[in-house]
């Protein structure tokens, strides 16, 4: 019999778990009664400090220094985490970086390859490691939460590579969800989260399009976490993300450009971007 509560008693792995939204996911896991939580982050000192703080609740919270842009690092630390805590029941693919610049200003390795490795390939690599054990264990619900972006639903100037990484994340995440359902693994739910700008500092200087507020990290993580718990396939925040997707699908490209640019100011949202260009 599969339990109905996905979080209580679960083993949770969170990439980019030392700060920002990753930290908030970890705190939600503790509050939800998770048995063990693995914080994966390149910032070992910050991860250790957070693990120490969260462990006071009684949960088994451990920090692992992991460079998710390296497949061998993910493989090795997945095995270590599983040996220390048990096979994960919940995976939160949260780590991400952004480079806000015209495409021709992107460095091929430092910007293009690094963004795709951290934002897209890392989630694929970790999920590929975790899925066999998840598929074999029907004793409790399993969850995969993939943090994508509204940038993966609409093209936008000055974020071509970031948008590409999130488009790929959405297509892959949705495809895996369908594959699991079609093969009888309905105890594993895949949730894709597509927020607009979130005020973590990662998009410092960016401005939301018309009627689109900058989300607080607390509001964003609450929506993603509750969607993950329920097994909601896709969570989009705020409501204007869904509206923009619908309009883009209905309008001819040139007409959409005329609306998205001067009217909704979508194409100007990154004009004043500064950011911090680091793993979140």
Protein model, in words:
The chain is of the alpha/beta class and 280 residues long. The chain has one domain: Rossmann fold (3-Layer(aba) Sandwich), CATH 3.40.50. 45% of the residues lie in helices and 14% in strands. Strand 1, helix 1 and strand 2 form a beta-alpha-beta unit. The longest helix has 29 residues. The radius of gyration is 18 Å and the shape is globular. The model has no long low-confidence stretch (mean pLDDT 92).
Brief summary of the model shown:
The protein contains 8 helices and 7 strands; from the N terminus they run βαβαβαβαβαβαβαα. It has 280 residues and is an alpha/beta fold.
What is this structure's SSE topology?
Layout: E1 11-15, H1 20-31, E2 36-41, H2 44-55, E3 60-65, H3 71-85, E4 90-93, H4 108-136, E5 142-147, H5 160-182, E6 188-195, H6 217-230, E7 234-237, H7 239-250, H8 253-260
Parallel strand pairs: 1-2, 1-4, 2-3, 4-5, 5-6, 6-7
């Amino acid at each position: 019999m599969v339990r109905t509560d996905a979080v209580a008693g679960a083993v949770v792995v969170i990439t980019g778990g030392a700060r920002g939204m990753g930290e908030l996911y970890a705190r939600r896991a503790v509050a939800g009664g998770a048995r063990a939580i693995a914080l994966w982050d390149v910032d070992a000192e910050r991860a250790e400090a957070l693990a120490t703080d969260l462990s006071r609740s009684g949960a088994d919270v451990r920090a692992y220094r992991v460079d998710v842009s390296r497949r061998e690092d993910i493989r090795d630390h997945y095995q270590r985490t599983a040996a220390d805590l048990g096979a994960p029941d919940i995976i939160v693919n949260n780590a991400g970086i952004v480079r806000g610049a015209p495409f021709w200003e992107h460095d091929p390795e430092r910007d293009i390859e690094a963004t795709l490795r951290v934002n897209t390939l890392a989630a694929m690599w970790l999920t590929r490691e975790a899925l066999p054990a998840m598929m074999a264990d029907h004793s409790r619900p399993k969850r995969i939460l993939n943090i994508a972006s509204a940038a993966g639903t609409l093209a936008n100037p000055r974020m071509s590579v970031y948008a590409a990484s999130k488009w790929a994340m959405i297509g892959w995440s949705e495809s895996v969800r369908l594959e699991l359902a079609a093969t009888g693994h309905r105890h594993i739910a895949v949730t894709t989260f597509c927020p607009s700008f979130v005020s973590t500092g990662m998009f410092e200087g960016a401005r939301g399009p018309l009627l689109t507020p900058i989300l607080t990290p607390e509001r964003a993580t609450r929506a993603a976490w509750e969607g993950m718990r329920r097994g909601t396939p896709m969570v989009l925040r705020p409501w204007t993300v869904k509206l923009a997707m619908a309009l883009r699908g209905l309008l001819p490209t040139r007409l959409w450009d005329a609306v998205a640019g001067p009217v909704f100011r979508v194409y100007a949202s990154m004009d004043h971007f500064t950011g911090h260009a680091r793993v979140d």
